[in-house]
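Replying to the earlier thread about multi-chain prediction with a worked example.

Input:
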Amino acid sequence: EAGVAQSPRYKIIEKRQSVAFWCNPISGHATLYWYQQILGQGPKLLIQFQNNGVVDDSQLPKDRFSAERLKGVDSTLKIQPAKLEDSAVYLCASSQDRNDYGYTFGSGTRLTVV
Amino acid sequence: AQSVTQPDIHITVSEGASLELRCNYSYGATPYLFWYVQSPGQGLQLLLKYFSGDTLVQGIKGFEAEFKRSQSSFNLRKPSVHWSDAAEYFCAVLSGGYNKLIFGAGTRLAVHP
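Result:
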């Protein structure tokens, strides 16, 4: 079984630029999560999708972050414009559905904003 | 609000020694608890989870954890640490409603030869 794929692995941008991350979950997994992991902290949920609908985006900074999951499969997370404090690892995870607690995480995208 | 506290930021043990990583949670009902491991540059890998039943849970790589409701704890243990266990370990609790994971800040484990 292929894992959760994320790209790119690394990204360096200047502040005020925009950036996008891509996630391909495990085939058939209905629930997809984006987590932000700042250095020295545990991951924090940004947004959760059930199929192509948003279930929870209460911690997503909506003035600069956006995410979509077209057709209920792949997902993209965008930051525009980026700030220095957005430097973090962005982790994507998926599970079969909301009641399946066997989350599988991708390797993440490490973003550095300079 | 639900929360997880991992009191130890860094722990160093010698190879072959026993290990215990602490985790305390704050949750009103019966918690669903998890331990994840993260090696450098890698995603999170599930070590074990507790939902109900036997309070001693066995996981992968020789790890186990014990749920103690009276102490609001879910400590991770391993009887003999290997150099490959050096990594960062995260405790997490499942938040009700939307089933999102709330993570502790992590404990970084170093293993001396």
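The radius of gyration of chain B is 13 Å.

Feel free to reuse this layout for your own posts.
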